[in-house]
Design goal:
The protein is of the alpha/beta class. Strand 6, helix 15 and strand 7 (436-438) form a beta-alpha-beta unit. Helix 1 runs antiparallel to helix 2, helix 5 runs antiparallel to helix 6 (112-132) and helix 15 crosses helix 16.
Length: 705
């Protein structure tokens, strides 16, 4: 930095200043008048002292522009940077002019020819800097910056790209806009080369005044012509290169603009799509569950703050699974879209209609009483009942079950509200489907449903904490009740307090909410672990009967899991009997037969549990390859008193024996019952009279067995 304040000139002032001073010094050389040199020196001295803004040339420029009322030294923005001068470079420019002009004046009294040659150089360079913007100060400025240990320039260009190979650019002197992208070194710089050409041409032109020999004059003309031709050639090539670069830059800029516009359009489109994905269901176009819950929160707040009344409906389609299974998911999606239209037509514009997932929908009746909502819900049920879904020649009739809950000032939270509506919907299903069930605080059906829902969380936690325990109950031959090698495996839940929860407290919830496959897998694996431990501790082969739920029969993961357990634990197939209830076997006949055939081929045995309570027991029995019939306990517990039950057990026992199937009677609670079973020739007995269920760990000792 300079040690005194110096104000940088404008580009117009720089151009005008160079033009005037160059013209003055050229006139001095042309007329060979030293007074022009004195005038040139004086103007530069005043400029050096007062800064360019107050120099005589600047005042002249402002006066001319004031008279003409327009600027006369305008510079295109594309070339404005060519005339950029900071304080340091302009100071070197002025110092160089004063030094060179004083040198020329001093030499005039001894070597006039040297004065005119120096003046020629000065004039040529001044005119060069007028039209090219490159000035003498570059050399001094570069030298000054090279001596500095750290850059301290306040140049506006300091943020731009610097060519590290070029001493000009490295020292901050970049007069041309293209210098930011140039990779040439200083000797290859086009501007420096042009200045050299012009200087050489000007020098040779000045020699005309001092050459008297025609031969030297002709050689001078030839050299000047060659230099002019070479300069023109260089200018043409450079201009052509710049034109191509400019065209390419314009093309790239146009492509960039188009790309940015297309990118912005794509971003806007995707943002819109994301907003739709967040709020709308992709299949039906209805509000999705997330947005439905957000609006439901607002409705709950409205009920609390404004004392408004609203109603929420939870709708579950009946027979939707049949469409999916028979015609595929494409048909199911089309059915959902058409049902969505039915729901929207039945609702008001102010109501909120949403798809909550699967075949479940939700409606919020805004500013509506329960009575009005029930009327609207009934009209909706009628519309769905009248609707027929046609797909590829198949016609389906669809029904719906609706759970309805009021949203009032004293209403509960969002979670409880959804829970009540869901429970009310399933209560409608349990009540016969195609109906409305309104949730009330004292509704025992809803309370039971909610209790079952609460069980699921406890059961999931029990799996993680291994809180389930296995009990067993002996199955003994009726003719030899003391022979105990066969046990039915029963599951219990141990609370943190140590209390044992019986299965009927949580099994209904597990069956309703699809938890049974997980529970079955846990029971089977831990039974196999116990078998292995009994074999190692007691060296006794034990037979186990394990209950398998209907949900596990068609679960491929469960079947793979069981096959893996046999291989991992080495349990003999013939020691395991799988028990399937009659109702589940009949309701899942295809899955049951596949399961039975697969594992029976390996050596496992199968028992049909609770036999006799179904409506078509005997007709299905002949098509099912099983080894045991477990006669339902409702026929057994009073067989010694009830002749009808005795006849029923006798008939089942005889048919089973004809088919080669052994029979087992449950609920044998007295010696009298066991005596009757002996008379009827029943094969096996199970019940409290034989033994109560006990923890499986007792079998780990010889005394236990």
């Amino acid at each position: 930095m300079l040690w005194f304040s110096y104000q940088s000139p404008t580009s117009g002032e720089v151009k005008f200043n160079r033009l005037v001073l160059g013209f003055i010094i050229i006139l001095g050389v042309f007329f060979q008048n030293i007074n022009y040199f004195y005038f040139y020196f004086a103007i530069n001295l005043i400029t050096f002292i007062t800064t360019v803004h107050f120099s005589p040339t600047s005042w002249l420029l402002h006066l001319i522009e004031l008279i003409l009322k327009r600027p006369i030294c305008t510079i295109s923005p594309a070339y404005k940077r060519s005339y950029f001068m900071n304080r340091e470079s302009e100071w070197f420019e002025l110092f160089a002019r004063l030094f060179v002009s004083s040198l020329a004046i001093g030499l005039f009294f001894y070597y006039p020819l040297a004065t005119w040659l120096i003046g020629t150089f000065m004039g040529v360079f001044m005119m060069i800097s007028t039209f090219f913007g490159f000035c003498l100060s570059a050399l001094g400025y570069i030298g000054f910056r090279s001596l500095q240990k750290s850059s301290s320039s306040s140049s506006d260009l300091q943020d731009l790209t610097t060519n590290k190979n070029c001493i000009l650019a490295r020292n901050g002197f970049k007069p041309y806009a293209r210098c930011d992208y140039c990779t040439l070194t200083a000797p290859q710089c086009t501007g420096m080369q042009f200045n050299g050409f012009v200087f050489a041409i000007g020098f040779l032109a000045a020699l005309f005044m001092f050459l008297s020999d025609p031969l030297w004059r002709d050689l001078n003309i030839i050299v000047i012509s060659a230099l002019l031709f070479w300069l023109t050639h260089k200018v043409t090539i450079n201009t052509d290169h710049l034109a191509r670069a400019d065209f390419e830059n314009r093309e790239l800029n146009s492509q960039l603009i188009n790309y940015n516009e297309s990118l912005e359009a794509e971003v806007s489109r995707r943002t819109y799509d994301l907003e739709k994905m967040v709020k709308l269901d992709s299949i039906t176009g209805l509000v999705n569950r997330y947005e439905f819950e957000q609006r439901l929160k607002a409705v709950i707040e409205s009920a609390k703050n404004e004392e408004a009344t609203h109603v929420m409906c939870y709708i579950d389609l009946d027979q939707f699974k049949i469409v999916n299974d028979k015609c595929g998911h494409i048909a199911g999606d089309e059915l959902l879209r058409q049902i969505a239209l039915v729901l929207k037509r039945s609702a008001r514009e102010t109501d909120v209609v949403a798809r909550l997932g699967g075949d479940e929908f939700g409606i919020i009746y805004i500013d509506s009483t329960l009575e009005d909502a029930q009327l609207q819900g009934q009209r909706l049920l009628n519309a769905i009942g009248e609707y027929r879904f046609n797909y590829q020649g198949n016609t389906f009739r669809i029904g719906a079950s609706i759970g309805m809950v009021g949203i009032i000032k004293e209403c509960c939270t969002l979670t409880n509200l959804l829970s009540q509506a869901d429970a009310a919907c399933y209560a409608a299903k349990d009540g016969g489907r195609n109906r409305i069930h309104v949730a009330h605080p004292e509704d025992t059906t809803i309370q039971e449903r909610r209790n079952q829902m609460q069980w699921i969380g406890r059961l999931e936690e029990a799996l993680i904490t291994n809180s389930f325990v296995l009990y067993v109950q002996p199955i003994v031959p009726v003719l030899d009740p003391l022979q105990r090698r066969h046990y039915e495996v029963l599951v219990r839940l141990r609370e943190e307090s140590g209390e044992i929860i019986p299965p009927m407290a949580f099994i209904p919830a597990a069956e309703r909410y699809g938890f049974m496959p997980k529970l079955d897998r846990w029971v089977i694996e831990n039974t196999f672990k116990s078998f292995t431990k009994i074999w190692h501790e007691v060296n006794e082969e034990t037979y186990f009967s394990i209950n398998v739920s209907g949900a596990s029969l068609g679960d491929a993961r469960t079947k793979d899991f069981i096959r893996g357990l046999f291989g991992n634990y080495g349990v003999p197939y013939h020691t395991i009997t799988f028990e399937i209830t009659e109702t589940e076997a009949v309701g899942n006949m295809t899955n049951a037969l596949e399961f039975i055939n697969e594992f029976r081929a390996l050596g496992c045995r199968f028992a049909l549990d609770d036999f006799g309570c179904g409506l078509s027991s005997f007709s299905y029995l002949q098509n099912m390859p099983i080894d045991y019939l477990k006669i339902d306990g409702s026929f057994v517990h009073d067989i010694h008193l009830n002749p009808i039950n005795r006849a029923m057990v006798d008939a089942i026992n005889q048919i089973g024996h004809v088919m080669g199937i052994a029979t087992i009677c449950e609920y044998v609670e007295t010696a009298a019952v066991l005596h009757v079973l002996n008379e009827l020739n029943v094969d096996f007995a199970q019940g409290y009279h034989i033994d109560r269920p006990f923890p499986i760990e007792i079998l780990f000792t010889p005394q236990g067995l």
